[in-house]
Amino acid sequence: MERLLAHLDRHHLLVLDELGYVPFSKAGAELLFEVVSRAYEQTSLVVTTNLPFEQWTEVLGSERLTGALLDRLTHRVHILEANSTSYRLRESRRRLKRRRMRKG
Prior knowledge:
Layout: H1 2-9, E1 13-16, H2 26-39, E2 44-47, H3 56-60, H4 63-73, H5 87-103
Parallel strand pairs: 1-2
Helix pairs in contact: 2-4
């Protein structure tokens, strides 16, 4: 485990994509907290999620851990909200439309 954490420490940017898509086990939530804690004020973090902060406890399983994690993540942060259609869904619709146009 320490080898993985040391490897992550060497990066200038960590991307946590779709946080909350799958709930964390207790060990997984603790590992995520360790990664974020070590990166705090040392490494740039980008986090994407569809969940509001209020629902993170459901994913992480602990109010205390969630509070501590959000404390680190939201200190000196830029929050960008994108309340639009998924780009994957949009691209799928474009592909289907192009196929229909070629057939018809």
